[in-house]
Amino acid sequence: MTDRGLYIHIPFCSGKCYYCDFFSVALDTEKLDFFTKKIIKEIEYFSNQYPDTRISSIYIGGGTPSIVPYLYIERIVKRISDLFLVNSEEFTIEVNPGEIEWVKEYSNLGVNRISLGVQSLNNNVLLKCGRRHNRDSIIYALQEISKYYDNVSCDLILGLPGQNENIVMNDINEVSNYVKHISLYFLKIGEGTKFYDFLKNKTIDFPEDDNLVEIYYLAKNKMLELGYIRYEVSNFAKENFQSKHNTLYWSRKEYIGVGPSACSLIGNKRLQISKLNYFNDKITEYLTEEVLTLEEMAKETVILSLRTDYGLDLNRFEKTYGKSIFQMFPEAMEKNLKFFEFFNRNFLKIREEYFLSQNIIFEDFL
User: Fold this and answer.
1) 324-356 pLDDT, tens per residue?
2) DSSP assigned state of 322
3) How would you class 322 by CB atoms within 10 Å of its CB: exposed for 0-12, middle for 13-18, buried for 19 or more?
4) Which of 318, 209, 311, 329 is nearest to 250 (CA)?
5) 318: domain CATH number?
């Protein structure tokens, strides 16, 4: 059997936040019925194609999965259990404040981890980024979720308009009373979002990049004081509460993705389900089936590993790809050697002072 993670993309959402560039649609019963039947067919497809799969983790993301009535989620999860051997150490579902009606019931499906979309607890910041909840509804959601789950995560975004150091520090202090895991993401402004239009038209001021770097390290230190250890550039966890499913991505292990725009990595193949015409076509379109070369897989391993605080396992790399990283990428290694450090003899990582410059370093490996 081959252990694989399973990601399920639920595209329904009650509204588009100003920063969101994920595929999402408004919820209606006709679309939901169609979607549920279609995603079950996708699960059946992967079960038939890869019968050796043992599901090691499940992550239901979106969109906002928690606005979908419980019975639909139950149908999807039941079909997974019918078709796959499930040995899932971690089963996460994303929820939004104000949309937590079925949180308690999720545990009946095997869910043991909840990820709450917080982004900020400051009402002014929430208003400026188009969130549909406020601080009180966030605190209420955290209190309710904590009654039923020990493993709770939340997302915060760094770089939102109206945000400053004090707001970020207060956010971290408040959520630390409830969660074991914090994801702190830098705001990315994608084309097609309202923030993209605001930036283009200069209708809203966004924090300066230099200030964000300073706030990031202040936040990192604050979380360390509170017992959260960074294990990936945007992820911080208390001991033994690192996300097993997301660690699977950074370790470049295999996973299956179902739902519009979801990706799968199986061996040397990457599949992506098209979001185009998803709700107009009963047959799932696999938009791409990319066969990766050995060098492409090696590049991904380097980039994904160096995002983490564990770094790149040099022995494992050489065993997997038949060459050392110096043999595989001599020019990139020579150019960037000053940015790296070696530890425990066999691991390579980016020095802390250059950690947020990693995208510039990665360009030389592409």
Assistant:
1) 999 999 999 999 999 999 988 899 999 999 999
2) S
3) exposed
4) 311
5) 1.10.10.920
Give CA torsion, residues 329, 335, 339, 344, to 10 deg.
Answer: 40
Q: What are phi and psi of 357, to 5 degrees?
A: -100, 15
| Cβ-based neighbours of 307, under 8 Å, separated by 6 or more | 232, 233, 250, 358
**Does one domain contain both 232 and 111?**
yes
The answer to whether residues 212 and 70 belong to one domain is: yes
Read off the pTM.
0.95
CA dist 55 and 47 (Å) reads 11
**202, 308: one domain:** no
Pairing of strands 85-95, 269-273: unpaired
How many C-beta neighbours within 10 Å does residue 318 have? 16
Please check the confidence at residue 35 and state whether its pLDDT lies above 90: yes
Number of domains in the chain: 2
Instruction: Write the CB contacts of 313 (distance below 8 Å, at least 6 apart in sequence).
Output: 305, 346, 347
